[in-house]
Amino acid sequence: MFRLHRLSVLLAAMTALAACQAEAPAPGFTDPHAEARPIAWNELLDRPRETATARLAFGEGELEFGELWLPEGEGPFPVVAMVHGGCWLSQIPGTILQDYIAADLRDHGIAVWNLEYARIGHETGGWPGTFEDIADGMDHLRVVAADYPLDLDRLVLTGHSAGGHLALWAAARGGLSEDSPAWRADPLLPDAVVTLAGINDLADYRAHGPGRCGEPDTVDNLIGPVEGQTRELMAQVSPGSMAGIAVDQVIISGELDPIVPPVLGARYTLLAGARGDTVRHVVLPAAGHFELIDPTAPAWQDIRAVLVEALQAD
Questions:
Q1: Which of 18, 115, 244, 265 lies at a CB distance of 3.0 to 4.6 Å from 137, suitable for a disulfide?
Q2: Bridge partners (DSSP) listed for residue 160
Q3: Cα–Cα distance measured from residue 133 to residue 243, given in angstroms and rounded to the nearest whole number
Q4: What is the domain partition of the chain in residue ranges?
Q5: What is the model's pTM?
Q6: How far is it, in rounded angstroms, from Cα 37 to Cα 51?
Q7: CATH architecture of 37-312
């Protein structure tokens, strides 16, 4: 009981400390939707969207493609590779959820690779197909860089919600064993990974998620029934159960997020830190779930700064 009490106190302290670390919005920035915060995904998608520079296939499947957003100029440009969320479900929109932040990063001189992938409800969705799509889509950036001015020595991964899980997994997959169907001989790994309301630990989300993403059923539909969620399987599919991740991690949560509450980010940060990872947790005040992918929200100003800092790190 004493240990549990100490853990709860430490979690509360970490969450409060992270909240204090969030910077104020840039001077002169005015949130045009301040009276409607927090927003839902359909309210985000009601706004006009720009389109990517190119849609490029990385496989033969209908959903095996990425959208490249290329800044003006000669480059080579630093790259943010991103994975959209949507509870891993085929019924929820895909890459368009991140068109807004992709356009914003492009306008700030950063190339974006926005991945699509098979999800629950698609023929090859779930384990291992979803994970194979992410692995192959990330590695395909080497092919893309042969035709477009990309600097893969400055590469950061990010993802939102379920996409945060997959982006973090992509950064961790270098530790997969060769008998895993998602293993690749020479995985393209980033300098850092930034999860935005990421579902970073599948076991924790299955057990303690608030149910807004259909958990526990969605987790079971993604990786298989609970009876088969062995230690060996979890070490292949969940960053919270994988070996230490040798990539800098920033775990970002929205203070008011009802889908992936910040306590889940705090618990993952404790777990990752205990195994020796370089990881920090940032809680953004007055932000819900979708503010983290809304470039008109004050939260995005902080997130962009984190991404830029990670791209500039040695």
A1: 115
A2: 196
A3: 21
A4: 37-312
A5: 0.90
A6: 26
A7: 3-Layer(aba) Sandwich (3.40)
